[in-house]
Fold this protein.
Amino acid sequence: MSENKSHCPKEERLWREEFSVSSSEQAYVERRQFGKFLVLTSGAMFAGQVWLMAKDWIAKTKAIVWPRKEVANEGDLDVGAAKVFQYPGPNDDCLLVRVNETKYVAYSQKCTHLSCAVIYSAQKKVMECPCHNGYFSIEDGHVIQGPPPRPLPRVELEASGGKLIATGMSVFGEGEAH
Amino acid sequence: MAFYDSPARKRAARAMDGAMLLIVELLVVQVWLLMASVESWLAGHRQVALPAVLLSGFLFAGCVCLLALASRTDRTARPIGPKNPLDSA
């Protein structure tokens, strides 16, 4: 054992001489590579922002044509009652609510927090997400309380010949500064 | 081995460390900016897209400049001659 110990420093020196890359140099190179990786990540963030602006520009230039769809007959629902329908696509659930004798409103049923199904609370007169107690205004869909970060998309309704027709969708505060 | 302990080399290593620290800080701001602007955009505040892309581009340019500066310091610290400094030792 004592022989081994005495030989160790010499062997280590020999190893260091034969091996052309020192550990300090290797760490230095890795730091540079890490720096390049960080800058690439920064470029990816910038690309994300460009993508957002491109999406915004496309949305501005391309006019969305919303389908017209019959949702319900006027008088089908009692005051405070709600009905689920699909708009604009067959998988987009929306909720039609009769707020009072004359007023009907409709919103997307997908909560803007984690996409739970939103229900109408007639007692509180709000749209309620039961998953995390998120509340949306029945008047315009804006967030009253809870974790949802955005308002509920609203379905535009038109009364025609005793029928309620969905004509498009809008979001509270769209294009406005708040 | 004296090459690795040279003041120029130490200065270059320090420059790289400093640049990386600043790049990390800029990157954190960029991540936050992207998250906040997407959130605002989805909430209907479409006017945030342009200022956000400008700011993000500015931060990205800052990151590139910092890396270029650190790389230049690194290049000047490297010896001209044999590629492996241990060969000449």
Summary: Chain A is about 30% helix and 30% strand.
